[in-house]
């Protein structure tokens, strides 16, 4: 289950997200101010989360240690971890382009560019995938990602209902694909066993222990031996990652075909 954002004080979080633009404290309070700002705290928090590759590693103490100050010094600028998480989640999305425009391309090319950039963003910051979509933080940078997708889809000619479905499907598809690739990388790093080696060992055991596997599961066997399957082929260190990337490209094309069909179908 993902971590639910927006659990802090709503006024404090929304003020930090949308209020002062000079990077200073969003509220007044006692404590040292020199050398600290909301921007500096957020940047340090993003670095901490990137190093830990987990939201669990993000704490006020860890951020304070990175900044060389006490935890109490941070509370002059950010009320607590819940509010900090909202701002960090939104701010890290600032590195994504606010407009996807492919010169000479149509809406499909623009959506493909948006999806590829978002997937790469998730892989640079896999901890972002731990934060649930259930409650958006409603910050400007998070909103900018949605606005970019809507702008790219504007040429598809979708009515309101299909448009909402397309947006929801695209976000979940990109997030799911990025999570699969991030977990693949993490599995190899945590276990010290490359995916190719893992599969070779278990497929050999499966052949010995279940020689009738292909007869019992013919469709699964066909899927595993399809031309698009690269698991176990080439360099075992990145074979499975290539497979996930290939699935992403093919799956996105199928999803875009469906969006195009919805634009031409009833209810447009």
Characterize the structure shown.
With 268 residues, the protein is mainly alpha-helical. It folds into 2 domains: 10-94, Arc Repressor Mutant, subunit A, CATH 1.10.10.60; 97-264, Tetracycline Repressor, domain 2 (Orthogonal Bundle), CATH 1.10.357.10. Helix content is 61%, strand content 0%. The protein has 12 helices and no strands. α6 runs antiparallel to α7 (140-153) and α8 runs antiparallel to α12 (239-264). It is flat. The chain starts with 9 loop residues before the first helix and ends with a helix.
Q: Rg to the nearest angstrom?
A: 22 Å
Quickly count the helices.
Answer: 12
Could you say which structural class the secondary elements and strand pairing correspond to? mainly alpha
Q: Could you say which overall geometry the principal axes of the C-alpha atoms support?
A: flat
Helix content: 55-70%
Q: CATH fold name of the largest domain, please?
A: Tetracycline Repressor, domain 2
What's the SSE pattern? HHHHHHHHHHHH
State the low-pLDDT regions, or none: none
**Terminal-residue CA separation:** 36 Å
Instruction: Output mean pLDDT.
Output: 87
CATH top level class name of the largest domain? Mainly Alpha
Could you describe the largest sheet, including whether it forms a barrel?
A: none
So, the CATH homologous superfamily of the largest domain? Tetracycline Repressor, domain 2
Which CATH-level-2 architecture of the largest domain? Orthogonal Bundle
Number of domain modules: 2
Please count the beta strands (DSSP E, at least 2 residues each).
0
Strand fraction equals under 5%
């Amino acid at each position: 289950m993902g971590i639910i954002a927006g659990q802090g004080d709503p006024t404090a979080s929304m003020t930090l997200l949308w209020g002062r633009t000079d990077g200073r404290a969003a509220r007044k309070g006692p404590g040292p101010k020199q050398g600290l700002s909301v921007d500096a705290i957020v940047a340090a928090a993003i670095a901490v989360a990137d190093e830990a590759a987990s939201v669990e590693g993000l704490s006020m103490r860890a951020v304070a240690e990175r900044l060389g100050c006490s935890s109490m010094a941070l509370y002059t600028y950010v009320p607590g971890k819940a509010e900090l998480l909202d701002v960090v989640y939104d701010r890290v999305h600032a590195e994504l382009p606010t407009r996807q425009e492919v010169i000479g391309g149509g809406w499909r090319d623009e959506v493909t560019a948006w999806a590829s950039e978002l997937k790469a963003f998730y892989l640079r910051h896999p901890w972002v995938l731990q934060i649930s979509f259930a409650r958006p933080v409603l910050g400007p940078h998070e909103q900018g990602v949605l606005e970019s997708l809507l702008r790219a889809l504007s040429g598809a000619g979708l009515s309101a209902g299909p448009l909402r479905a397309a947006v929801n499907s695209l976000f979940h598809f990109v997030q799911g694909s990025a999570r699969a690739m991030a977990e693949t990388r993490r599995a190899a790093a945590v276990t010290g066993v490359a995916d190719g080696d893992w599969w070779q060992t278990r497929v050999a055991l499966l052949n010995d222990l279940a020689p009738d596997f292909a007869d019992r599961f013919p469709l699964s066997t066909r899927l595993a031996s399809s031309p698009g399957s690269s698991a176990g082929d080439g360099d075992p260190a990145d074979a499975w990652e290539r497979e996930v990337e290939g699935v992403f490209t093919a799956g996105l094309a199928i999803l875009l075909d469906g969006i195009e069909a919805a634009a031409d179908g009833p209810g447009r």
